[in-house]
Each structure stands twice: as C-alpha cells, then as structure tokens.
Amino acid sequence: MTENQYREVDPYEVAVSDMNERRSSPVTSSIQESIEKQGVIQPPLVRERDGMDDAEVPYEAVVGQRRVLGAQAAGGVETIPVVVVGWDDAEALEASITENIDVFREDVLPEDRATAILRLMDKQNYNQRQAAEALGVGRKVVTRMIERGREEWEGTALHPEHDNSTSTSPTKGQTEKTVDNLDDNSVREIRKMTGGGSEGEEIATKAVQDGLNQHDLNEAKKRVDRGQDPHGAVESVTREKQEIQETKAEERTRIELTFSGDESEALTTAAKQRGATENQVARQEIVRYLEAEGFL
C-alpha cells in the first residue's frame, strides 16, 4: 500500500501494534467517557496485519492505541475512524516514539521509551545522533532516554530487558511505585555514584521508597565523590530530608489578634485572674474552642 486510506472499522478489529511505544499505558476514565459521549474524533493510525494468523483482527494500531482501547472499553461503539498507513516496522516504531516525544507524555514509562528507542536504533542501525535527528530531538535527550539500556544496568530491574515475572517487587499494574517510575536523570545519578549493577538497583529501590528526587540523588553523589559510600550518602540525604519535612510540619501557625473596648478590658481581667498574660489566655480559649468543636 502506498497511499494512506481512511476507513470505518469495528474497534475490536484493531489490535495494539508491537511497534507501539506505549506498552504499559492504561486507558483513563476520561478517555473512555469522552468516547462514550462523542465517539473517536481523531482517527488512530493503523496497519493491515498481512500474514497474521488472527484473521478476525485485521489491523494493528501504530499511533492512537488508547483511543482504540477506549472505544473497546466504552461498549456500544460499533465503528471508529482509522487511517490505514503502509509503514514498515521501523517507520511505525519511529512514528509511535515521535508522537509521544512531541507532547512529552508523562504516562509512558521510561522503560518502555528506552526499549522503543533502542529497537529503532537497532532496526535502522542508528547511532545516538542519527536517532536524535530522526526523532527531532537533541542528542542529549536520546542519551538520557536510553540510560536504562546501558550495560551497567544489565541483569537489574532497571534494564528494559528485565523479566518482571521473576521480580518480587510490585508490578506495573499495582499502585505502589517501582524503579520503573524513576525518571531517567535520577537513574543516571545512581549509576554515576554506584556504577550500576545490584548496588545501583538497591539504591534505586530505596530512592523510590523514600521519595528521593534527582536533586536529592545529585546531593548524594556529591557526598560519594567526597569519599562517602553510596548507601551511607543516600541514608544521610534521606535523614536530612525527613528532618526538614518534620520541622516544617511542626511549625506553628502565628496569628495576631487585636482587642478593643469591652473585649480588651475583659481579656485583661481574665489574664489577671488566671495569673497569665493576655496572649496565654487568648491561646487557651482558642484551644478550648477547637477541642469543643472537634477540631482537636
């Protein structure tokens, strides 16, 4: 096929292409609700599955897989518009990646993005500069996005080829975050301070558990550069971060009250009777009110 063709097809006749970058993205309720109300407005780009064994699913979505899955989940959607393209695997993979880079999608797991770009580089025999040119991004962006594909991460949960089925950590479908959720810059900082491998994986797991970000890990790396061991550096950064958070939580709310006339006289009298200052009396009464109303 040389020209793109517009067609109306049953959403269940479309599968997700292996060339699609979004291997782990769920269908959100907003997408499903929008399709239930308005149908699919923007046609997904699909390829014909020539030579496939499953004749009941003649198409595969290259771009717009969530629109297809949303239509399937919505129920009652008899047909959706699609544009049938004649792309080969490399072109389909490149289109999928480019679509998501252009809008800087946050819901594409870094692992999926790294896998897709590495596959593209392998299929097209691209180096990082050529891949960056093909995708319309800077070379440093590509370098960052394929961080997990480095040999230092082979055999760990951070590597794209890691088998999640053998891992005891939460899977992508669970709500608890895993090392898959670490951003690429944080992974790079961990590699620089540990050299990757099993120690890097341990630090990455701790970073996720303790909510450390790139800035925290960069600070830990600086301490490693000054001679501290990686685990000790991360522990000290984590402890200091927790102390700051606790301090902020304990900060008092300061208010200024002004009384005049009868109120001022009454406050002064109450303070004398209690042997306290006006501020102490005002505070005591505020606390008593908050307790009586169930706020404390």
Question: Can you give keywords for this protein?
Answer:
alpha/beta, Chromosome_partition/occlusion, 3 domains, ParB_N, Chromosome segregation DNA-binding protein, five-stranded mixed β-sheet, 12 helices
Question: Explain this structure to me?
Answer:
The chain is an alpha/beta fold. The chain folds into three domains: 5-142, Conserved hypothetical protein from pyrococcus furiosus pfu- 392566-001, ParB domain, CATH 3.90.1530.30; 176-250; 261-292. It is 51% helix and 7% strand. It is built from twelve helices and five strands. The protein has helices spanning 29-38, 65-74, 89-102, 110-124, 128-135, 139-145, 184-194, 197-210, 214-225, 230-250, 261-274, 278-292, and strands spanning 5-9, 14-16, 45-48, 59-63, 80-84. It has a five-stranded mixed sheet with strand order 1-5-3-4-2, sandwiched between helices. Helix 1 packs across helix 2 and helix 5 (128-135) packs across helix 6 (139-145). The longest helix has 21 residues, at 230-250. It is flat, with a radius of gyration of 29 Å.
